[in-house]
Amino acid sequence: MPKILIVDDEQDIVELVSYNMEKEGFKTVKAFDGEAALKQVKTQKPNLIILDLMLPKMNGLDVCRVIRGNSETASLPIIMLTAKSDEIDKIIGLENGADDYITKPFSVKELVARVRTILRRAQDGGKKAGMEEFQYEGLKINYTSCLVQINGKAITLSPTELKLLFFLSRNPGRVYSRNQILDHVWGDDTFITDRAVDVHIRRLRSQIEKDMENPKYIQTVRGFGYKFADKK
User: Fold this and answer.
1) What is the CATH number of the domain that holds 146?
2) Which one of 124, 150, 179 terminates a domain?
């Protein structure tokens, strides 16, 4: 039974989300500030976090950074809750490691759907698709164990970044539009916009590229989209 950590300083929201998540078969744990959230992550080891942006003691962005900066929790899926509807706030959340975002007031049914989608994405990330390993100029990917290495050093990616890398690396040299990437990586998750593809590509590059301005692996094809470099 997947365990969901719900973090919000508004108790009514936490109780509402918790009730509906448990009704859908999830186990829930709760936190009402950023510091408590990090303690729960350490002790409860949740499978996913629903994390409010505006929190006392430590805000959601800082909590997200700490989680992504710890190798033990770096791949933990995070859905960011925000009362702000500005596009920039959503992009900042994604750039700091959130896998998805939802704006208050939100539909509980929609939130449940997003939780299921991201957990499925995390579970499916390591499934084989014709080959088990891939190597290219210092980058090594094991699709079965989900191990990614750069020059022998293990790199920890979020579930979304991992699935994005898997998809592009399985098709080196082939250019995909943002909409095609959305269809293959996010599937039936209709909440994500093509702008989010750019954000996740940028985060993925920050993890695997030595020079983000001149990427070796994930390359931009202007006017079309992205591709993994042609294998020599």
Assistant:
1) 1.10.10.10
2) 124
For helices 60-69 and 87-95, the axis angle rounded to 10 degrees is 20
Paired tokens of 68: 């992504």
Domain count, the chain: 2
CATH number for the domain that contains residue 79: 3.40.50.2300
Average pLDDT of the residues in 182-211: 81
> How would residue 89 be classed by pLDDT, with cut points 50, 70 and 90?
low
Of 124, 155, 188, the last residue of a domain is 124
- Hey, what amino acid is at 154? A
pLDDT at residue 191 in the model:
63
- 147-174 pLDDT, tens digit per residue, is 899 998 988 888 888 889 998 998 888 8
Burial class (CB in 10 A: 0-12, 13-18, 19+), 145: exposed
Phi, psi of 221 (to 5 degrees): -110, 105
CB contact set of 121 (below 8 Å; sequence gap of 6+) = 77, 99, 159, 160, 163, 185, 186, 187
Residues 113 and 173 in one domain: no
Rounded-to-integer distance, Cα 86 and Cα 130, Å: 41
